[in-house]
Amino acid sequence: MKKLILRSLVLVTSCVSTVFAQSEHQSRLWTAQWITSSGAAHRDLAILHFRKTIELPLEPTRFVVDVSADNQFLLYVNGRRVGTGPSRADLAHWRYETYDLAPLLHQGSNVLAATVWNLATHAAVAQMSDRIGFLLHGNSENERIADTDSSWVVEQESGIDILAADLPGFYYAAEPGIIMDASKFDWSWNTASPEHRESWSKAIAISRGALRGESDAPNNWQLVADALPPMEMTSEPAGAVVRGVEIPKGTEFPNGPLTVPAHTNATVLLDRGHLTTAYPALIASGSGATIRLTYAEALLDAHGQKGNRNEIEGKHIFGLVDEFLPNSTPHQFINLAWRTWRYLQLDVQTKDQPVTIEGLHTWFTAYPFTEKASFQSDDPSLTAIWQVGWRTARLDAHDTYMDTPYWERLQYIGDTRLQALISYTVAGDDRLGRQAIEAFNDSRIPDGLTQSRYPSSLVQMIPTFSLLWVGMVHDFYMFRDDLDFVRRQMPGTRTVLDWFLRRQRPDGLLGKVEWWPFVDWGKDFEGGMPPQDEGGGSSVLTLQFIEALRYAAELEHAYGDPRVAQDYRRAADRAAEGVREHCWNQHYGVLADTPAQQHFSQHANILGIWLDVIPADRHKQVLSKILSVSDSGFTATGPLPPMTAATYYFRFYLARALEHAGMADDYLRTLKPWHDMIALGLTTWAESPEPTRSDSHAWSAHPNYDLLTIVAGIRPRSPRFESVLIEPHLGGLKLVHATLPIAKGVIEVQYSRATKGMVAAEVTLPRGVSGELVWKSRRTPLHPGKQNFSLP
Predict the structure, then answer these.
(1) Please, which residues have CB within 8 angstroms of residue 276's CB and are 6 or more apart in sequence?
(2) What range defines the domain where residue 399 resides?
(3) Count of CB atoms situated within 10 Å of the CB of 768
(4) Are 154 and 126 within one domain?
(5) What pLDDT band is residue 553 in, cutting at 50, 70 and 90?
(6) Which member of 49, 266, 569, 758 has the greatest number of CB atoms within 10 A?
(7) Entry pTM
(8) How far apart are CA 208 and CA 204, in angstroms?
């Protein structure tokens, strides 16, 4: 049995190296056919196995194929795993993956095989679909023998069924649980040739594969090459047993076998030690048994509260469930979709026979980001914040960014803007950011707005997120060097802003904004929405409009239409004047949320400072006021109204306001909520303060970006990071060392505070990069290479 376990691991690791950089977009028409099964209803749930045996006269040195499916495929060659896909998109931009199969092929007979599944109405909300289908296209004439057509055979898998998520009271939008019955599953589908069995029949051709842009395409899958690399697959331990019921003494599970006697109900609770996204791989045998796997971010007490995530006493598990029904032969259970958990509980119920679980292993999976930036200081608690933030950013990035890897797996603009900035600065990788920006552009409806999340089978409109998408395009313009990519987004930024310009009132404020104008999960923002008067007039929404107008004006002035840029600036100026005139409260000295001035929030004042709608001479006073309503240790001067506080997400914009107001040395004081999360045992950042649904939420990871750009002070001084601005804000830190990757190399800074208050600074810039060092309003030119300064 140990050999079986080892073999299964080798199969996965060997296949990862076979994935190769995708081929260039071909202009010729494809001849390969989308295929399906005659027994698969048009849009019903179906799991199919496809296979074909090809004869090769010689062992090939190159055998390149393009592969796609709806919803997903898992491809094997000669019993060895090649890869899975395609990455999610919409039907107008349906992805295909490209592989060189040559390392897995040999002279003579070779078996190509794929499992394809379409979960229909049970699919994740992020999954868009037409119907179940599979496509494999040989890249040249030599590979055309592998093309999918009616020469392939197919069978319907009856050993897997859906186990719908039972999570009452929670919004769950990701993949469902499954139940896998080993006695029904076809374990030989991808190995020896079983085509003669009655369960296999000739595949049915739907129509040929068509590249996007073809005239009169024969189906709805408009194919484009996937620009993303394969997702990471790394072998990891399953975790430690922290609780067990009816577990024999001396058991070394999960690293060794576990045998549960007949007529026994046993439970094993594993703690991975931190949240993970992975495929659990479990090998078991024993007829009549049921093995139930429950995945949870945290355990719950009797009141349904999480509390300290490290504590298990008196707590129970609640979460998504898979079930495996083993038979007498040892088989490996691996789900079709990866799962998210820190705690994994196995409940084993046996009947007349014992069950043996040979072991449990996991395969970590996520987008293959590499941590190229670094941040160290003399405060070890900041190291913990950096590490937890990077783990959060990694788990929330797969073939798309996603808000939470457990509950939704949806790519929302509000989260994604912050995730992309972390990707640019920490990983120096913009591929997933490009995917996201283009996906949101593709999501635009005829009204002009982007959808709030995309890809998504369910339309959801958050107009404020369309404004943030304009900000995403501008962020890319500042951090990455691809002006053609930016230009391609600008027709979309115009339609978004046209939608809002039609709703700008004569007084400059926005009128009533329909759909779901979400801003933040503030405690008295109903549904995350700031208040609007009967005719609109929200200062918070208008301020977000101003931000987008200014960003778009900059883009239009540089690469678009200067007249449009001027119109945007005028509209922004009118909006700013309207906010000042109608929403400034003289008594409290802060902005109100509407002209009625019955409601106040940190959000309006954060944006008002950052965008200079509040005059510069009042910035520090207003910031001190609004921060006094939180737990940041600030004290207000003068009267203060009840005020909605910003949660973790919107504190990203608070950091921008602090920096703009000249108070960035206070930034580290605002990190108390992140320190508190670590004290609660969180290993990724939560969605919102306790009680919280999601223990891993992308939008809370922005301190990684802030530590680099505010504390270490490394930012682009000009678009495309062509020149650098170094402006550190050390607060009480005595030592900081940071690196940040850019296109031309790595920027490195080091600061050391001497006993007499002087700061020794060392800045190293890559070849061809110049910039400016700013310290207490003093500006010093920077040149490529290493340079040292003594800062008073």
Answers:
(1) 236, 340, 341, 342, 362, 364, 395
(2) 374-711
(3) 10
(4) yes
(5) very high
(6) 49
(7) 0.95
(8) 12
